[in-house]
Amino acid sequence: MIKVVTVGLGYIGLPTSLMFAKHGAEVVGVDVSKRVVDFLNAGQVPIEEPFLQDYLTEALSKKNFKASLTPERGDVFIVAVPTPNAPDEFGSCDLTYVKQATEAILPHLERGNTIIIESTIAPRTTEDVIQPMIEKEGFLVGEDIYLVHCPERVLPGQILHELVHNNRIIGGVTETCTEKGKEIYGLFVEGKLLGATASTAELSKLMENTYRDVNIALANELVQISDKLGIDALSVIEMANQHPRVNIHQPGPGVGGHCLAVDPYFIVAEAPKEARLIRQAREINSHMPHFIVRKVLDIMEENNGKTITVLGLAYKGNVDDMRESPSLQIVNQLKSLTDYDIRTFDPYVANSDAYSLESALISSDLALVLTDHDVFKEIPAHMIRTMNTPVLFDTKNCVSKDAMFRTHYTLGNLSTVGKVSKSYI
C-alpha cells in the first residue's frame, strides 16, 4: 500500500485524495485551515460536489484517510494548492502557496519519494523553481526524488467521474519521473496517461483553458457587434455552427472559475509581447460584466423598474463555486451605480438574499439570470405573476422560451432594448 500525502484540500486536492483512498492508498490530507481539517475528520465535506460525501464516509470507515494540519512521511506527495494571479501588471502566477507547500514537505522527503505538482503553474515552474528547492536539500531529481507536473482537468459537478475517465498529462522532469507518475495515477485513471516533459504539461494545461477563453471572447464580441448592428447574435452562432468545421462557443455575462479567468494571464506574463490575442480575449471577457450592467440599466429605465432579482451567484450551473464569478462583479456594480433594490438568489450559495426562487421574484421588475442552474430553466407561471414587471434578461439562454414573461431578453435580442442617452459606466 502506498502512502499519499496531499497538501491542499480544496476543489481538486480533496477529491484527488479521496480517489486515491478509494483505490487502496493510505492518504493524509493536509490543509492550513483547521476548520477544513476538523470538518473532514468529523466526516463532513466542506465543498459541494456529487458523491464526495460518500467517498469520505467510505475512506474514514476503512481508516485509510485522515486530515491534518501538518505533513508527514509518505511515498507520494501531491501539491494541490491555489495559484492566484499576482498583483502585477500582467497578473502573473503567484507561487506563494506552492512554495510554502513544497517547503512544508521537504523535511519529510526520503529517497525514492515522488512529488507531484497538481496546482496550475506558469511554464517552467517545475524545473526552474521546484526542482532547485528539492536539490538544495541534497536530493538529485530523477534519481533520488521523482518530480512530476500533473495538471488537473476536471469539471466541477463531475470531478470524481472525470478524475477516472479523462486522459491525464504526466509531465516528468526526466523520463524516469514520467514513468513514476504514470505508475501512481495508473492506480485509478482509466483514460490515457500521456507522457510529456514538465514544461509541456504546464503550458498544455494553460492553453486548454486559454483556448476556451479566447473562443468565449469571440462569442462575447459577436454579441456586442450584433447589438450595434441590430442582429440576433445567438441566431448567428446557431447558423455559423452548422458549418462542419466551425464551433463558436456560447456567450455569457463573463468568464469565472479558478481556470479560465486566471490561467491565460500566466501565459501573458511569461511572453507579454507575443501573447497579444490572449490578452485581448481576456480584456473582452473581463469587460462583459460592464456590458451586462449597461443593458440592465437600459431595461430598467425602459420599464421604470425599481427592483432587480439576480438569479445565480456561482460562476457555473449546479455548483456552489463563486471563484471569479462575473455574477458578483455585476451585483457589486449595480449596487454601487444605482439606487435599485438588488436581490440575489442562488440555491447553492448560503448567503443569498432570498431563501427561495418564489420569494426572490415577488414584486420584482426584472429577473436577471446570470447562472444556468437547472432550477431556473422552468420558472413557474404563478411565480412570474407575482412580479411587478414580468421581464426576464437571460444571459445564459437557459430559461424555457415558454416561460410566461412579458418580455424575454437574451444576449441575442438585446438590440430591441430601448436606447437611453444617460451614460452609467
At a glance:
One of its GO terms (molecular function) is UDP-glucose 6-dehydrogenase activity. By secondary structure, this protein is of the alpha/beta class. The protein has helices at 13-22, 34-41, 52-62, 96-105, 125-135, 159-165, 175-185, 198-229, 233-240, 263-270, 276-303, 326-337, 357-361, 381-384, and strands at 3-7, 26-30, 65-68, 76-79, 114-117, 146-149, 168-172, 193-197, 307-311, 341-345, 366-369, 391-394, 407-410.
Would you spell out the secondary-structure blueprint of this structure?
Elements: E1 3-7, H1 13-22, E2 26-30, H2 34-41, H3 52-62, E3 65-68, E4 76-79, H4 96-105, E5 114-117, H5 125-135, E6 146-149, H6 159-165, E7 168-172, H7 175-185, E8 193-197, H8 198-229, H9 233-240, H10 263-270, H11 276-303, E9 307-311, H12 326-337, E10 341-345, H13 357-361, E11 366-369, H14 381-384, E12 391-394, E13 407-410
Parallel strand pairs: 1-2, 1-4, 2-3, 4-5, 5-6, 7-8, 9-10, 9-11, 11-12, 12-13
Antiparallel strand pairs: 6-7
Helix pairs in contact: 1-3, 8-10, 8-11, 10-11, 11-12
